[in-house]
Specification:
about 20% strand; single chain; 5-stranded antiparallel β-sheet; alpha+beta; Alpha-Beta Plaits; 8 strands
């Protein structure tokens, strides 16, 4: 009888140990299944997914464009003249965009000159003089308004054109010019005109200071190509699909 009681206690003890082990294992499994993720991490993941999707869409567009060009070249297979014409058209399009072709179209012609009004007592004479910042701001306003080509005193402006004061003159494309400044811009004449004439515009501010600023619409403006030499020392081409 005593032995039977001891056997029952032993079995009960082992059973309790087994239940404890099972509970411990189950607890670890459950604990390892759920992790707290902060809203910031979820937002980062969401932004990463959106960025990846945008890159995929851009790659799809690029692939589609290249496939269309490939089809065009394949359609001209055996016709060297047609291929040459297609490549020449593409080259001229790139030269047009970059500013290395003469262009014409409707737009505005702007005259900007120093003011001629009398100075107020104690006023700085520079207040009625044209500075490089005035030219830069006007050019920026024209670009925002959709200008497709711009020149100042015959100098075509491209992506790396410089405009900065040098004494009583302004240097543009490494050439020096004094007032007055004739700015030509090709684009929608109404929008370009409004960008410099509307209340609150920078052009209106210059007029209030006393500078001379006239903006005239024109149906036919001719702007010469960029004539200076371009030297690129640091640019390197990147093959399509190559990681930057």
């Amino acid at each position: 009888m005593v032995k039977l009681m001891k056997l029952k206690k032993s079995i009960l003890f082992l059973f309790c140990i087994l239940i404890g082990l099972l509970i411990s294992i189950q607890s670890r499994v459950i604990t390892g299944t759920f992790h707290y993720i902060s809203p910031e991490i979820l937002k980062d993941y969401d932004n990463s997914i959106k960025t990846e999707r945008m890159e995929i869409e851009q790659l799809k567009i690029l692939i589609s464009e290249k496939q269309e060009k490939l089809k065009a070249y394949q359609s001209y297979s055996g016709e060297s003249d047609s291929i040459l014409n297609t490549m020449t058209q593409e080259l001229n399009r790139m030269r047009l965009i970059s500013g290395f072709l003469d262009v014409q179209g409707e737009g505005v012609i702007i005259l900007l000159d120093d003011g001629t009004r009398d100075l107020y007592q104690g006023e700085n004479p520079n207040d009625i003089l044209v500075h490089d910042i005035d030219l830069l701001t006007i050019i920026n306003d024209l670009k925002i308004a959709g200008a497709e080509a711009i020149s100042i005193n015959g100098q075509r402006l491209i992506n790396n054109s410089e405009i900065n004061c040098s004494g009583h003159s302004v240097r543009i494309n490494n050439q020096f010019f004094a007032q007055p400044f004739i700015i030509k811009a090709i684009g929608d004449p109404k929008i370009l005109h409004s960008s410099l004439s509307a209340p609150g515009s920078y052009g209106e501010l210059l007029r209030e200071y006393g500078l001379i600023l006239n903006v005239d619409k024109s149906i036919n403006i001719r702007i010469s190509k960029y004539s200076e030499e371009s030297n690129y020392k640091f640019l390197k081409t990147v093959e399509e699909g190559e990681m930057i």
